[in-house]
Amino acid sequence: MTTDFAGVDLAEVDLTDLKYFEDGPPYALLARMRAEASPHWTALTAGREPGIWSFTKLAASKTISQDSPTFSSARGGG
C-alpha cells in the first residue's frame, strides 16, 4: 500500500485492514480522516459485527474514553 493517501476514497477505508499499516502507522491517512471524515463508519464483512466507528480527533477520543457507560462495547460491540 502506498503511503500517499491523497487519492484514497475515505468511504472505502477499513482501518481493520492491515494493508494500511504495512509501511508503519498511516499518519497521512489519519490526518486526512481527521480533516475530512471524523467520525468514520466502516461496514465490516459478512459474519462479523455490522461495523465500527473510528474517531480520529483527540477531543472525541478523550470524551469517549472517559464515558464508558455511553460508549461501551458491552452491548454486543467488538
List keywords for this structure.
78 residues, alpha+beta, two-stranded antiparallel ribbon, 2 strands
Topology:
Elements: H1 27-36, E1 40-43, E2 51-54, H2 58-65, H3 68-71
Antiparallel strand pairs: 1-2
Radius of gyration: 14 Å
* Structure annotation, total helices: 3
Question: SSE order, as H and E?
Answer: HEEHH
Envelope shape: globular
Strand-pairing-aware structural class: alpha+beta
How can the largest sheet be summarized?
A: 2 strands, antiparallel
Percent helix, as a range, is 25-40%
> Mean of the pLDDT scores?
83
Terminal-residue CA separation: 26 Å
**Number of β-strand runs:** 2
What oligomeric arrangement do these chains adopt? single chain
Describe this structure in words.
- The chain is of the alpha+beta class.
- 28% of the residues lie in helices and 10% in strands.
- It contains three helices and two strands.
- It has helices at residues 27-36, 58-65, 68-71; strands at residues 40-43, 51-54.
Question: Summary?
Answer:
The protein is of the alpha+beta class and 78 residues long. The chain has helices spanning 27-36, 58-65, 68-71, and strands spanning 40-43, 51-54.
